[in-house]
Specification:
Blueprint: H1 5-14, E1 32-41, E2 45-49, E3 55-72, E4 82-91, E5 94-102, E6 112-115, E7 125-138, E8 141-148, E9 151-158, E10 163-168, E11 179-186, E12 192-199
Parallel strand pairs: 3-12, 5-9, 5-10
Antiparallel strand pairs: 1-2, 1-11, 2-3, 3-10, 4-5, 4-7, 6-7, 7-8, 8-9, 11-12
């Protein structure tokens, strides 16, 4: 789901003065990952065949994207990009990134900061999704201000941290026989849908 121009402007305007005090108290349902070879493609769904041979239908959101990820440095981070970052809470409204991904234009899977659960997560691990509102120099790396509708978060990004950048490609590449993966999240009706397909490498 894309933010409207008005909502984006409001989020950016609020960022310098708003701290996400309540955002970390709740964690949304974890996303579901699927992978396989494409069997059929439609505007609202994609059929995949997994390694187990089973056919899986993946509901897609309107305008879904196709991309691959490539490794870059922190120098790839630009104002206005939409990012996702696993980070360790340092104090209210601030975290230190241990993973950062720059998503392709049009892919905004969720907004805000929440507690991250998982095998490698700790009680202080957070996940942040939002727009890069400001970039500055911090101790040992960059200091990013990430904006979203509920507020903002400051992220310390170590200079040596690898950054994964998603590169959008023509959706026509998504055809039968091509291997892809997808992450499904519940929409407003509670239906699990994917907003993009990811290729394992540059096509």
């Amino acid at each position: 789901m894309m933010l409207s121009t008005g909502l984006l402007a409001a989020a950016l305007a609020a960022c310098p003065v708003t701290v996400d005090r309540k955002a970390e108290e709740a964690s949304p349902a974890p996303p579901k990952g699927v992978a396989g070879e494409i069997v059929a493609v439609a505007e609202d769904h994609v059929d995949l065949r997994g390694k187990d041979g089973l056919l899986v239908t993946v509901p897609m959101t309107k305008g879904w994207t196709l991309s691959y990820a490539q490794k870059a440095s922190v120098e790839a981070i630009r104002l206005g990009q939409f990012i996702g970052s696993a980070n360790q809470a340092m104090r209210e409204g601030r975290g230190k990134a241990n993973e950062l991904r720059v998503f392709e234009a049009g892919y905004q899977p969720e907004y805000g900061t929440h507690i991250l659960s998982g095998p490698n997560a700790t009680a202080q691990t957070r996940m942040t999704h939002g727009f890069v509102f400001a970039i500055g120099q911090g101790e040992g790396g960059l200091l990013l201000q990430i904006a979203y509708p509920a507020g903002c978060r400051m992220l310390e990004v170590p200079a040596a941290l690898p950054v994964m950048v998603s590169v959008a490609v023509d959706r026509a590449i998504a055809r039968p026989g091509v291997a892809v993966s997808a992450v499904l999240r519940p929409d407003q009706e509670g239906v699990l849908r994917a907003s993009r397909l990811t290729l394992p490498a540059k096509p």
